[in-house]
Amino acid sequence: MAEDLDPFKIAQAQLDEAAEIMGLDDAAHQILREPMRTLTFNLPVKMRNGKTKVFTAFRVQYNDARGPCKGGIRFHPKESIETVKALSAWMTWKNALANIPYGGGKGGVICDPKTMNDYELENLSRAYIRALWKFIGPKQDIPAPDVYTTPQIMAWMMDEYSKIVGYNEFGVITGKPLEVWGSEGRNNSTAMGAMYVLREAAKYKKLKLKGATVAIQGFGNAGKFAFDLVTSMFGAKVVAISDSSGAIYSKSGLNYAKLSEMKSKSGELASVKGVDHISNAELLELGVDVLIPSAIENQVTGANADRINAKILLELANGPVTNEADKILSEKKVFDLPDFLVNSGGVIGSYFEWLQNTSGYYWKAEEVYSKLDEIITKSFNDVAKAHEAYAKSGKRISFRTAAYTISVDRVAKAMKYRGWY
Ligand code: GLU
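Above: inputs. Below: predicted complex with glutamic acid.
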């Protein structure tokens, strides 16, 4: 039977597995299997041609037992409520694992930002906030950027919210430009956090990162900075990278400065000369030391997992590896580091931004990075310890399930103290 790729079913099955291993209370399990609140909006937006186009938008507030909901907003032509529900669940586990004082949430709008100009994107962003504003706020739910949303979009959203409530509320949204009180280091904090995880993972497996070969899927905020940092921090060699136009490969390594400059002029990798052109599928199957999927969900599935040839799989995207793939990868002894550990640097950076917005005192970049390192390194060690403790008691579980046991336990305990079950 073909694998069911509904991301929310995948997220629920991951929770079920952890719940079983932990002996989670039934009522807690039931609460955590579904979102606390699901919002769907119909947004009329004035387009450049004078016509009104109606967009469907979502915000899912998954759980707020540990604090306000927190998570990004995606603008994507294939956005769906199932995906947003899954992503909001994963945000809940991500924030709990990092042990930052948030629950989980996620938003999405079905739209194709590549075909929209700034006027239309601004109108859409403001319409989204006009629909959502009552349900968000620095103590309620704090959105942020995600796939195809940018600091500029966050600034428009913060402005619309501030206009509605009647005062400047910078802490309602994170990932803003520095000029409207974003945080130093937030732009690359997702990739930076992943690098700290990679450093710890390499230590754990006694692998050398200097000269290690790396393949990266995706050239968005996460993939682009991962390309830069994995070379500059560790001296690793990025041999392949992709964008939506295709993937490129060079045995001797690709040049970050040249490619990022080309991409910033809205170039496409498909047009790069002097390299081999391969497909996205081929990129995933390369024999490399480190594979970094940094695009979207369901990239490594039951259909291609047995052809993954990397030693370390660093899940920088949300949900890139399905449950069937998980089993195959563990048989193949690929060291798969779960998304909600690897990419938690983004929301940890957001947490710092929110703290700075609420206190009005702003930090230097070094302070952001050193605090991020401290939090994410502890998360890695917590997961490794849980993994080993289960192994000692005769239960062989993946790093993903080990991470789940920590997060679910934290959220369940908060719900218990609050008297929710
Ligand atoms: N969108 C990012 C994520 O998936 C960041 C979320 C945030 O900063 O709230 O983790």
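The domain at 36-171 is CATH 3.40.50.10860 (Rossmann fold).
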